[in-house]
Amino acid sequence: MYNFIKSLRDNKIGILFILCASLTTAFGQMFWKVSEGNSILYILIGFFLYFIGAGLMIVAFRFGSLSVLHPILSMGYVFAIFIGGIFLEEIITDKQIAGIVCIILGAILIGGGDN
């Protein structure tokens, strides 16, 4: 347990950046979906958000261990499900909720420590 807390403390800035990267790339993907290939503005906004997310990932890896931060990128799937439910009125199923729990637990377990 001590190693887990120490890892969180040592990687906290990187974790924050990687979560922001996951969120911005998920929003970028939402804009691509909303554009339906017709709205160049939404496509460009999606690319811009994806670009910002990629930049945040680069910065994040300067502030933490790859083995801790990279598994946390999977939180983008969780963000995408919630974004779809909130902004696109998609239905979130029980299976998706179970998947969300597995992703979060996996990110915690795999990315929970440097050692």
Helix content: over 70%
Order of helices and strands: HHHHH
Strand tally: 0
Average pLDDT figure: 92
User: Low-confidence runs (pLDDT<50, min 5 residues)?
Assistant: none
**What does the main sheet amount to?**
none
What distance separates the N and C termini?
11 Å
Radius of gyration computed on alpha carbons: 15 Å
Shape: flat
Please identify the structural class as seen in this structure. mainly alpha
Strand content: under 5%
- Figure out the total of helices: 5
Structure write-up:
It is a single chain. By secondary structure, the chain is mostly helical. It has helices spanning 2-35, 40-62, 66-72, 75-87, 94-110. Helix 1 packs antiparallel against helix 2 and helix 1 crosses helix 3 (66-72). The longest helix has 34 residues, at 2-35. The model has no long low-confidence stretch (mean pLDDT 92).
Quick description:
The chain has helices at 2-35, 40-62, 66-72, 75-87, 94-110. With 115 residues, the chain is an all-alpha fold.
